[in-house]
Design brief:
Structural class: mainly beta
Strand order of the largest sheet: 1-2-5
Distance between the termini: 21 Å
Oligomer: single chain
Largest sheet: 3 strands, antiparallel
Helix content: under 10%
Shape: globular
Number of strands: 8
Length: 60
């Protein structure tokens, strides 16, 4: 997981992962990222540039 102008996550494993970015005031944003893929947390056409932590779990 990296944050610069946008926060993104890259799945280097071989299983589908659900990654949750913890935001202010208890809010969060969730992504599902397939094996070898990358994705960026977005909301309303804008990306998140920071977060308080990332939690990831296997989906399958």
């Amino acid at each position: 997981m990296t944050c610069g102008s946008c926060c993104s996550v890259r799945n280097i494993g071989s299983r589908l992962v659900e990654a949750r970015l913890a935001l202010a005031l208890g809010a969060s944003a969730t992504l599902r990222v397939g094996p070898g893929q990358s994705s960026t947390w977005m909301s309303g056409g804008s990306c998140f540039s920071s977060g308080f932590g990332v939690f990831a779990n296997y989906v399958d």
